[in-house]
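Holo model, nicotinamide-adenine-dinucleotide. Inputs:
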Amino acid sequence: MKILVTGGLGFIGSNFILHVLKKYPNFQIINIDAQLPGSNPENLKGLNRNKNYQYIKGNITNKKLIDKLVSRSDVVFNFAAESHVDRSINDPMPFIDSNIFGVYTILEAIRKHKKKLIQISTDEVFGSLKSGSANEKYSFNPSSPYAASKASAELLIQSYITTYDCDAIITRCTNNYGPRQDPEKLIPRVILFSLHNKKIPIYGTGKNIRDWIFVLDHCDAILKVFFRGKAGESYNISGLNELDNLKVVKMILKIMEKSQNFIYFTKDRPGHDFRYSLDSSKISRKLRWKPSYNFEAGLEYTVKWYLANKNWWKNISSESLNPTPWKNR
Ligand SMILES: NC(=O)c1ccc[n+]([C@@H]2O[C@H](COP(=O)([O-])OP(=O)(O)OC[C@H]3O[C@@H](n4cnc5c(N)ncnc54)[C@H](O)[C@@H]3O)[C@@H](O)[C@H]2O)c1
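Output:
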């Protein structure tokens, strides 16, 4: 099996590559990543000598390169994306480029070479839900330029499935946590702020709800979809673990034995969705998948990973630890 992973130096992509090589050591993986925000070359440093792994620095919008790499692969797992909502508020352009134009470039190559695409999408395409959970047929209602770019990519893929009979499947997942996530994102940010005894900024009232899934549960679900999912369909992947941000921050402080007085509330970001929620009964019923990691244990494991891997984060720019990045960039 020859796999092309895009965005494999990022958080989920790097965990996915490590997971696949552990489970299927004979699979050959090519990782193309442009080293944009979210990437960290430290993520896969350990694979330098693995003969079944190759890294290519490149952009998914590079038509010639993508055409060549897709022609040599059996399947593309597209993780590559600008992924930080705050950055998309400040400047949507890179999101249009990577998340829409990049997907178009991959689709053209998939169509030409008749290969398979697994697109990694997000619960954010459905927007904020006051109650209930979105199933695969729920209508799109994206709030941020990030969410809109991911929804646009999904629509484009859907059109290639309908018009050109492309072999593609879309997965949508809730908030991931675990090792190797850029400290721009909530959980690693709180870990590093409290490690440095810095006050911890929380947007608004901290009551916004997210559903958290351990990254390896997500990777497992993606593999299930790849092996057993139906071409042309989409699958929601939920952590079945909805929590408000304040509760998550308090849990981290407790694990780190820090005072809750470190918390302070900052101006909310514009368009901040109140709650995301996915109905993932389809993947559980049809593919017999459900998350296996317990949140408390997964969070403790994640905190310990950051504490034990100072080399991984020591060179990360202090810009990542900006309290309100959407405002100040
Ligand atoms: N993190 C989450 O909680 C979450 C939840 C649901 C879905 N997703 C989706 O999963 C995917 C991966 O998310 P992540 O959290 O690992 O993101 P990340 O920001 O950690 O990593 C993204 C990677 O993509 C690369 N990249 C971006 N644009 C590129 C381009 N044009 N060409 C080549 N490489 C490019 C970056 O360099 C980076 O390494 C994204 O598509 C995201 O929308 C993430």
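The CA atoms of residues 155 and 267 lie 33 Å apart. The mean pLDDT is 95.
Archived with the compound record.
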